[in-house]
Amino acid sequence: MSADFIVITTAILVVVPCALLGTLLVLRQMAMIGDAISHAVLPGIVFAFFISESLGALTSLVGAAVFGLLCALLIEALKNTGRVKEDSSIGIVFTALFALGVFLISRFAGSVHLDLQHVLYGEIAFSPLNSLIIGGVNLGPMSFWTLGIVTVVAVSFVLLFYKELKIATFDAGLAAAVGLSPVLVHYLLMGAVSITVVGAFDSVGAILVVAFLIAPAATAYLLTEQLWRMMALAVGAGTLSAVSGYFLAALFDVSISGMMATMTGVLFLLALLFSPSHGLAAAFLRRSENRRVFSRDLLLSRIGTLGEKTTEETLARSLGWEEGKVSRSLEDALREGFIVRPSSGEVAVTRKGCDAARERTESLA
Amino acid sequence: MRQVEMEERKNRKLEALPDETPLEVSGLTVAYRDKPVLWDVSFEVPDGELVAIVGPNGAGKTTLLKAVMGMIEPAAGRALVYGKPFEKARHLVGYVPQRGSVDWDFPTSALDIVQMGLYGKLGWFRRPGRKERETAMECLEKVGIASFADRQISQLSGGQQQRVFLARALAQDANLYLTDEPFAAVDYKTERAIVELLRELKSQGKTVIVVHHDLGTVPEYFDRVVILNKNLVAEGPVEKVFNKENLSEAYGGNVSYLAGS
Amino acid sequence: MLELVAALFTDYTLRNVALGCAVLGVVSGALGCFAVLRRQGLLGDALAHATLPGVCVAFLLSGTRAPFVLLLGAALTASLGALLIIAVVNTTRIKYDAALGIVLSVFFGAGTVLLTYIAGSGNSGQSGLDRFIFGQAATIVRGDVVTMGILAAAALLVVFVLFKEFKILSFDPEFAASMGFPVGKLNVLLTALIVVAIVIGIQTVGVILMAAMLITPAAAARQWTDKLSGMVFISGFFGALSGVSGAMVSASGSNLPTGPIIVLSATGIFLLSLVFGARHGFLWSRMRERRNRRAALGGST
User: CB-based contact (8 Å) between B31 and chain A?
Assistant: First the structure.
């Protein structure tokens, strides 16, 4: 296996669970809770190291999951005191837990095989060097195993609970009515996010994992209306970011994980600008088209109320528009056959125009 | 002495006001993103009347108030307040937003909220002083909750919070009041107190516009009604336009509120 | 501990460090109140992360480590981040939380790319840049304190002068707009002041944990008072207290990054406030409840 292959596969094993769960976080407006958990697992990882360094991956998965859930619980508890709002609760809890983690790592640097570089950027570049060896048999890169487990957990979580997650996300009231506990769904999701985040931690660090959780999901949200398609697109966007990020990082000799995170942002920006359904360019075009249609229909209904002897000037006065706008709109209506303009300078609505105006009024309610 | 001062203030204000109508809305069209929420709405509100704006949810009632106050740019049309654009007449307008639009856990007292009604006249930088405190206290007395002046606002009941908002509008000492659902979720006693207050304002020659939900009380409380459902459905004196035809056009289907009342 | 306090007055370096941290605590504590009350605490988090690429670009372009230049770069990318968040939320279906998460993580990612690029180019100046991630109080010198002090004084002066305006903007922006206050501009100004607080803080607390300096002291202060002015004062005091105590522990030589310690002491103050706070603390409300119950029982017999 080439090093390139190992690094890219590792990255994709980060991307898949992050994209699936990130989609749910974005839809449930819990992106910042995802961010909080990704920071808060740090002390769990450190404590796991204290307990047993040799067990490594397994204990740190458990330790991190415990702290991830603890973070979610503390945020809820603090919010429920009624003394602190939700956003402040998130800010207080995750900064405290992350600070605790960094403190422990710095204070006990000698006894913990973990440095701050690792926490920040992960060590995806070293994934080819770190193999799982049991009984002298090389079972392949360690990252394939840890992240493989995480991916399997996340994918089966989403597949098994797809219907439940969908209902709980889009209609919490209905979910409760059909006997789905929103609290249970919430904490299951938090648990899955915690496990995903700690799996990704070794590869991309505690902060950049947030980019993989949120940005591809948000990118997909700009492109589709359907949940399963959004998940697929998020996986696609994440994979594209990972692959392009890897080669760009090699080209400029910079941080691989940082470049991958940057690329998730670049793809988001592209979708933001050019998405056919929700992009800024499309919205701009649609808005100017709307403005044109609005003005035309307003004009029609106003000619209707003003009755005979409506001229360009009376229309301009009545609508409070400048004359240029009135004549542009009149030409527009004329082209569509909604009005007639006899040489006397007056304006009258045709039957087709009446229908269009009525349709507009009816479409409002 | 005090009486004279009040009288003077009133005269000065009336002098400043030509015989313009308090509110004149013409062809107002407002779109939010791609959807029109108000379509070609025109009506006038005559001086010294209590006016209800009714319509189903999403009919554009709050949007209408906000467009009048220039908080939302209309796609077409305009609203004139006493014959002028709102920016030139805002000192004549008092505003009561929906109670649910603010965070009542905010660290401040009832008296402090009422003083906010005076910020507009204070202008930039100047702090409220003793005079403002006294004015605010008077306004709290008018709505009957002077004893709660120093209470933190989250410790007030819903009805008391609504009264604080009304007191704040009173402090604005306006001629035209725009109020957004002041009767929403208040107790019976507060509802009566608010009605009394609105009538007193009317007796002083002020004009009050109320976004209102409870169709059953419209004939009892108001002189005029504006029935809205994105379009203007009807507008005029309550006895003329507040009927089944207009309401079912606005609300669609049968309107049982009327039969019940 | 006593030695440390004594050193505060005799040790020139330590005095600078403590002074810098106090300034940072006061400013972020005071401005954090408005952020917290407007439910924008996490905006500070996103903008703090967004300063990292700015620091790096400023260094790459200017080739100097002068604090003023680096902080200017930091302020520029933080402002860019704020603009992006507003644009995304106002024009698309992406919600506020996701917009924050994207700006936070992508800007930080770009920052790490630039940090490694700088390190790769073998420029010796790079060692000074990653201190912005977790903060390093020990590196604060007199020049930094002066820069921080001027920025802080300007920010606090604006808050003092526009206190009434910021109060009504935070409580009821619609009502403020109806009276003719330019709500949009005041909003921009308040966000700009928060950026100033962040820029003052990142050297000491670091970009990752800076959010705590805006949120935690303000949330703690809220437990002690029901007045906005009181909250701003107490929050500034709590901020300074956590800043100075954290910096002193960190500077005492145990080779600890300053940010985490400052944040942990702020969290400690918050927890104490939650229990003992005069207005909303658990302890007093529990006692009040008991007294009321006793009074009610007494009344009924």
Answer: yes
